[in-house]
Each structure stands twice: as structure tokens, then as C-alpha cells.
Amino acid sequence: MAAAIITREEISRTEELIRPHIRHTPVLWADMADFGARPLAIALKLECLQHSGSFKARGAFGNLLTRPVPEAGVVAASGGNHGAAVAYAAMKLGIPASIFVPEVTSEAKAKRIRDYHANLVVTGARYADALAASEHFAKETGALPIHAFDQPETLLGQGTLGAEIENDLPGIDTLLVAVGGGGLIGGIAAWFGGRIRIVAVEPEGAPTLWRAFAAGAPVDAETEGIAADSLAPRRVGELMFPIARSFVEGSILVSDDDIRAAQRALWDKIRIVAEPGGAAAFAALLSGKYSPAAGERIAVLVCGANTTAVNFD
After folding, report:
1. Integer distance in angstroms from the first to the last C-alpha of the chain?
2. What domains sit in the chain, N to C, each tagged with a CATH number?
3. Is 158 helix (H, G, I), strand (E, B) or coil?
4. Helix 152-168 × helix 183-192 angle, to 10°
5. Where are the beta strands (DSSP E) in 59-103?
């Protein structure tokens, strides 16, 4: 069913609709030799520079511009980035927004949500708790739920990043993408449809897609680690999983130390600020967990920058 909904044609239509509201984010070419690895030119797609500090703005506008919004406005549950994106999009479109986040949400993300004038509710230990509270709120108020990853309009919005990457980097062989609930990699994989290699990267403490691949279906996974506020929703979405099974090559697990090292390297060498989830894909390459073939043309998605840490010491 998901493959029939999340098509290149629908992604293109969504892209036309949201284009006036989002940034075309830049690509930075870097040499892995500058990071102490063997020489290899890589392309870093800096979606961390998107409105609200992450790729999530695409899915937020994809929802708000294609679904009828009631007077009660919208409600979203989030580890932080989706909430900030929905709050930003709602502010720009003049729509009331209530955002539910768990206690692990970083202050940087909570501050963004407040700054976008949304009603922020902090509740529960993990994303699943915030989601349950947001669903109750939607039933009580009639607000429109905007799911962070398991919603067709969310996947279509994130898929516009795949279209943008293909336009920016038509010659790449491989794209490394961080995974939490899977909306980002699901949308991107649907766009490419197997025409390039899509490789998932996940924290060892939150291996949602890795466990789903092993089980043959979305299943619960751990929700721990330094990227728990962006890459630990308990399980991947039902809509994205058939897409991932068809078009994602596999999942690589990286440690918290790998992610910290990637954050530091991005800042120290090229002055790019990335939150833990945003640096996870680069961590796979820097740590050697992903070993490129000779001549492989690789792009790495740096997908979020909502952190107060800069020197990462």
C-alpha cells in the first residue's frame, strides 16, 4: 500500500507545493583525509540548515498544505525536531499548534518550539509517552494529528529531499541516511526507487530499522543513547517499512562514541554544527563501520542541528 501512495509523482507534486516555504539546502564537498581517514571525496548534504534546524520542515509543510486543518489547529508528538518543524510551519501559516515532547527532549529543541509560539507540553520519559498524550489531546480537542513519520504526507514531504539530492548530486552511487522512525529514509528511498544505494545508519541504543529487518516487520526496539531525542521512537513506521525492504540496502549501527566523534569532527574540521542524530550518518563513515569501495561516490546526509553544544567537549 505504501509504495502505491509514496510515488515519485506524488513527491514531485508535494515538492511544487512546499517549495516556496522551504530552503534548498547546500552541498559541501569534503575529503575524508581532512578527518584522518584515507582520501575520499564525499558530498555532505547540509539539511541541518533547513528551516527549524532539520529536514522535518518538509514533512510539516507537506501535511499542513495538503490536509484540511480544523479550527482547533494541529497537534504533534516529537522528540523535538518534528515538533519544532510543525510549530514553525504552523506559525508561518497562522495555524494553532500544540506540541507534546518527552522529558529527554533537549532544551535547544524545546526552546525552538516555544520560540515558534506553539503550546509546548513536556510529558513522559520517551517519545511513545508523548505520542499517547498527543493522541488523547487530539480526541479531546479535535486538533489534527501530524505524525512524525507514519503518515503519507510526512513521507511525501521528506521524499522531496531525495528529489533535491538527485538534482544536486546526479552522479552519486550511495547515500547514507540516519534513521529513527524512518520517515526520512522512507521518503528518500521511494524517490530513488533503487536507482542508487541507500544505506541506513542507526544508534546501537535505538536500532529500530535493524530490528525490523531482522524480524521482517516493525517491532519494538531499545530507546536509549545520546540521539534518543531524534532517533529513538521505539519502532519504525508501518508505511515506510515496505519501502525500506525494497529499496534500502541495510542498516549500520554506530555507538554513542562514534556519534560524538562525528559531531566533533564536523565542527573542528569544517565548522558544521550537527546534533547527535544529525551526525549519525557521518559517524558510520568516520568510524569505518561503513567501508566504501574504490571509486564509490558517496553522499552523507547531515539532517539536524538543534543542539546547544558547539565545542562538544
Report:
1. 46
2. 2-55+151-302 (3.40.50.1100), 56-145 (3.40.50.1100)
3. helix
4. 60
5. 74-77, 97-101
Give the pLDDT confidence of 161-178 residue by residue, as tens digits. 999 999 999 999 999 999
**pTM across the whole model:** 0.94
Which is nearest to 281 in space by CA: 161, 160, 193, 152? 161
Name the grid cell of 172: 552519486
59, 155 contact by CB (below 8 A)? yes
Per the structure block, which three cell numbers stand in for 97?
499548534
Single-letter amino acid, residue 286 = L
Q: Strand order of the sheet with strand 27-31?
A: 27-31, 41-46, 298-302, 174-178, 197-203, 248-254
Whether pLDDT at 29 is above 90: yes
Nearest by Cα to 313 from 281, 268, 283: 268
